[in-house]
Amino acid sequence: MMRLWYFSTIFWVVCKALPSRKQYSVAPELLPGLSEVEDKSTIPEMYAGHMPLARLNSDDENEVDYFFWKFSRSDKVLNTLIIWLNGGPGCSSMDGALVENGPFRVDKNLKLVVNEGSWHSRADLLYVDQPVNTGFSVSNGNRKAFDDDLTLTTQHFMDFLESYFKVFPEDRSKDLIIAGESYSGQYVPFIAEAIQKRNAQANSASEKYNLRGILVGNGWMDPDTQSLAYLPFALSKGIIDQKNPHFRKLLEEQEMCQNRIISKSSDEHQPFQYEECESILQTILMATKNVSAETPSNEVCMNMYSYNLRDSFPACGSNWPEEVLHVPGFFDRPGILEALNLDSTKVPKWKECNLDVYFHLKNRKAVPSVRKLPALLDSGLKVILYNGEMDLLCNEKGVLDMIDKLQWGGQRGFSNAKKYGWNYRDYDTNTDHIAGNVLFDRNLTYISVHNASHMVPNDKSLYSRGVVDIYLNDFFLEKLESKDVLVTTSEKNMDDFGSSNKLGVLGTLDDDDKESDNVGMTDQKDDKNKTDQDKSGERPSKEEEEQDQRRRRQGTFKIFGITVLVVLVLGSFVLYIYIRKHTNKTRAILINPSHRQHDSQNKKVSWADDLEHGYDFETDQSQPGSAQSAPKKNGSYTRVPNTELDESFELENL
């Protein structure tokens, strides 16, 4: 009864206050640069504006509006919705929309240009500024409100979702992926857990959110483990060495951090992160300064977001990437805010990050999101973590160390991880580029992105879109130099991947599904082996040839037996009808042997030949495990046996 009252109240409050979908529409011609785009099909359908949160407490003087910007393909309806959140905390998700994986970038003329690596070609994209007072998200009360804990931030975002799905109900049934980078490594698992709890309390399936997975890039998820990874990572990459004058101080800070973590009490609420661990990164930046007279002022300090780059001190990466500097000017252009359905008198001047949000979010109640991951993984949720290998701030050693400590599915860490190479194939130049490496175990995938920074979609946009392709199982699996390699490719060839044949997007199956999917698996694997042999050009071994001949003989016998059975059944039925209709003639034939002999010589059963030549029992199966059902292989990616390039793959949970 309480749940019914809860949802009814939300519905009443939201329906009373929310604008209509049409009021959020964005006209492309109002955005500078889009009129100059030659291929108009690359311009997505857009919606943007302030979404009032579905707050039940009407006495709250601080009504909150979250700013969102949605992009979807205008030429095709996609069944996946990716919600993207930037981190900070306090950094606007317009970084993602206009600097990273959105459909557009802002050029030096403050105009929008097409981003060839946009993710909107794979899924609908929804960018949200949160927590409150981040970007264009505002509080309308008498005081400026800030979230002080991730539990409050999560509740506010759930309020946003309640409002959003009322205005855009068609998105509720889509496969939902919560994604983000950096400090969003905290937001994303918290939101995923809240959605699962909400779904468990829903009265019907239609009220549930169709959460399918989470995707975190260069995530800050486990402060303790990731802080302790700074020094080992810097040493392994040659960023510093033992001859550095700051090395002894670094060892002391590393020991202090380690001792503080070890000494924590098990019965007290632990701090979100320890002060003793926060100084290590700053000391590394000090240790790598170059203050020689010939050093340009903008190259004094190492860029913590991409350690192969330099920056001025004390920015050490804050001035990067260059495109970020264009975004404030774009939003300052006359008419832009109005085009995005914003009241320019009620929103602040846009800035990338609001430090007030950062300083207020102390998390005195919340625990780090790494503690949410085991339960999310055990629930079957598909989790992808990816890292640009050049990032120092949230480096890949820290993330891998975190994974090694995780316990889920009855095992710890990557116990039996499958390892794959990863290439990006450019069909325009017919060349392959090394994109990175992939580890997969159970329903957790880790992707290392080659030569990429903290903001992978910014400097490796085409590679980053491949991360989404891996999630959606849209890639080739090839054997290159005796190594299994996943191959993602350019946009114009994606339709050849056979996405209609994809199964098990989550990479998880229950026991019943596993049993049914194994039916007819042998024949499909035979087709797969034949396809692999044709592509490689290698002759199968003698043993494989004998097995293949044996299977073909079994298949032929199966077809012959079924055909004979069908002929006998149908023949009996025709004979029965014939006898019933021509009783007198039949009696005469039975009495007169000469008539029987004559009729039997002239009779021709043509439908038997039609049946044999017109129906393929091996390929046209409608039961589970048929050629329409993708073969499964526990704990790995598996090629689907299709023709030409129509192939699809999946990640499957053991």
UniProtKB/TrEMBL annotation:
Keywords: Apoptosis, Carboxypeptidase, Glycoprotein, Golgi apparatus, Hydrolase, Membrane, Protease, Signal, Transmembrane, Transmembrane helix. Residues 523-542 have a biased composition (Basic and acidic residues). Residues 1-17 form the signal peptide. Gene3D superfamilies: alpha/beta hydrolase. Its main location: Golgi. One of its GO terms (biological process) is apoptotic process. Residues 644-654 have a biased composition (Acidic residues). Belongs to the peptidase S10 family. It comes from Zygosaccharomyces mellis. It is found in: Golgi apparatus, trans-Golgi network membrane. GO terms for cellular component: trans-Golgi network. InterPro entries: AB_hydrolase_fold, Peptidase_S10, Ser_caboxypep_his_AS. Residues 508-552, 614-654 are annotated as: Disordered. The keyword Hydrolase applies. This is Pheromone-processing carboxypeptidase KEX1. Residues 620-641 have a biased composition (Polar residues).
